[in-house]
Amino acid sequence: MKNYAYIRVSSIDQNEDRQLRAMQELHIPEKQIFVDKQSGKDFNRQSYKRLCRVMRKGDLLYVLSIDRLGRNYKEIQNQWRYLTTDKGIDICVIDMPLLDTRQYKDLLGTFIADIVLQILSFVAESERENIRKRQAQGISAAKAKGIRFGRPEAKLPDNFLKLVRRWKNDRSSLDEVLRTCAISRSTFFRRLRELKIK
Question: Is 186 part of the annotated catalytic residue set?
Fold first, then answer.
């Protein structure tokens, strides 16, 4: 039997140290700790898939909390059953002692663990939905204040119209105009459309 740990943070700039410390306190070897820096919306994650391939019947998987496993209600349920039933792996959710498949192996214990799992996975997905709503509201509020997202708009030179006329009259090539303006071909034609230049 081997002990494994799964750690997940939602993005590359988030820090997994808190989860890592919890796993180190359990003396899980570093090579048996699998980390993904990716959304929990589904289980299409590189390290998680690798973890599933290496675990064998009788192994034990630790996760700090159920939302670190995932944030999709149905997929958490499916993965839990796949790991515990199909692969015969025990799972321990550190911050929720009722979600430790080594305990409560009788029918009542399994029933209680199933209820807790359903509630927590529902909460995890609900929180994901709330995060998305708050993010959309934040973006909308920022746009209303005039904050722009993405790369800053390429500034056109003051003589842009003159350069366009020269190009249209075959007195300079498009490449020369693009170099002078320091813009891409797609930006050039988009700006022509925006300025309604024909």
Answer: no
- Report the amino acid identity of residue 97: P
For the domain spanning 3-141, the CATH number is 3.40.50.1390
Q: Provide the residue ranges of all domains of the chain, joining segments of one domain with +.
A: 3-141, 160-194
Query: 67-105 burial, b if ≥16 CB within 10 A, otherwise e?
Result: bbbbbbbebbbebbeebbeeeebbbbbbebeebbbeebe
**Averaged pLDDT score across all residues of the chain:** 85
Give the separation between CA 15 and CA 195, rounded to whole angstroms: 46
Note whether 68 and 22 are within 8 A (CB): no
Set 10, 39, 47, 65: catalytic member: 10
d(CA 168, CA 192): 12
Average pLDDT over residues 167-182: 87
Mean pLDDT value of segment 116-125: 72
Sort strands 90-93 and 60-63 into parallel, antiparallel or unpaired: parallel
